[in-house]
Amino acid sequence: EQEQEQRRRLLDVASRFPLPTGCRFSYGTAGFRADGATMAPAVCRAGILAALRSLKLASAAVGIVITASHNPIGDNGVKIADPDGGMMDQQWEPFAAALANAPDPDALLQLVLQFVKDEGIPLGGHHTAQVLLGRDTRPTGEYLLDAALQGINAILGAQAIDMGILTTPQLHWMVRSKNKGIKASESDYFTQLINSFRRMLELLPKDKGGDELAKKLIVDGANGIGGVKLEQIKAELSGLDIIVRNSGKEGEGILNHLCGADFVQKERVTPHGFGPEDVGVRCASLDGDADRLVYFQMSSSSDNKVDLVDGDKILSLFALFIREQLDVINNNGNQVDKSLPARLGIVQTAYANGASTQFLKGLGLEVVFTPTGVKYLHKKALEYDIGIYFEANGHGTVVFSEDFISQLESLSNDLSSQAANSQYHAAMRLMAATQLINQAVGDALSGLLLVEAILQYKRWSFQNWCELYSDLPSRQLKVKVVDRSSIVTTDAETKVSQPSSLQELIDKETANYTQGRCFVRPSGTEDVVRVYAEASTQVEADSLAKSVAHHVERLLG
Ligand code: G16
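Above: the input record for the complex with 1,6-di-O-phosphono-alpha-D-glucopyranose. Below: its predicted structure, written as tokens.
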């Protein structure tokens, strides 16, 4: 009987959200994404999928975020979080895509039954499943939330918990915490950020000399959810005077329109709402769902250009800080002969500015590359005791292995009798950083607080940070083509394998430029092909990008 009921529910929900003819969803860089008005079938089916995933993983909580992140306000999408808080395991992506595209209720039912059989998923109401849901501020969010709830409720034994309007990283953090048995409400999240940030500041060296960091920080909230959340906690962030612009309040502007991390990083100009009075003030920019962070500063009032600190430089700052703490702990001259062996790994993508990679390698760090997408970088970073990953666009975080954290804890205990000792302080600083940074996924709010704490620790101004190395001039372009999937890439997206003539053309163009580097890849979040070029001058980078974009247009129409 249960079996009949399960079948009936699946057929029923599929008929409530039919797939329009000709509609095709593809599982992209971070889940499904398209015009918000067309997304209900895919979101409903993502609900079914998330419940099945929870059933498969012994009823552990799984997450769904309804967001299209950096995309325009009319788009929407769905990201799925695994029990560890990371992106859904890639092994399930083909099933996710097949489910989203099942043409009719019968096909959907058969697909689910077959998958459940193949994967040994206990469907039928004898086990429970748990799905936490969050959404951003998009107008289609509520409607799509309902579609997701209906999908989840179509699986017997599944429980949906609506956590409300959240940043994407908050929901990922909640999923991770819940499965670790840690309290996982929004106020628990805020408490963890506020307390670990305060702890970082308490551990600042007292005798370092130099100027104190200016307290004023202006944050561009992209008119999304990140600014709203920052407004809620900023008064409790000691040592910082935060002003939120593009906060999403009525009249401030449109989500991601001429503002936000994607805009600032790609255009390298001030976002909407910033003007000459902000010259020389440290500024940060979040994206629509607050999983990306970049910093910038206006250097002159005569134009709207900015000095940009992108994900690569945030990564470099984190790497320097962590390495410094490890060096203090492991210094042979320490009074206490304790050490903390750690394999530190840096993960970047082809978009990483060449100068950043050179800088990091110059520090003797191990740098590896993956294709674009947090799902790839995060997975790679987990191979290290401490993995630091960032995309140039501002997505990134630091992950610490459980083994490393337990060694750090025991070292801190051993050293606690030497509380005045620099080795102890370094260990405590690392410990606070593991608490402050969101280890589930890149998180603009927690990343911002870690940046601020490290700048204070180093007594670095924005300018000091920006001058860590000079970015090679670069340019990114988008090209509209008939079918972007006709481009196939290899070698962590640095080479095109199809169409076969394209790579030859790229190589030929690139050879004309000093320090030239160029690659193209289909976006997994927008219907465009992205072109990235780097060269020794801005004029050259622009010209290389333009000529390769032209080849893409000519070949793919
Ligand atoms: C998502 C992914 C990122 C990726 C970005 C752009 O970010 O999580 O890892 O860098 O898409 O991807 P693509 O170049 O394929 O369009 P977000 O912030 O849009 O969710």
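Notes for the reader.
The CA atoms of residues 479 and 529 lie 5 Å apart.
The mean pLDDT is 95.
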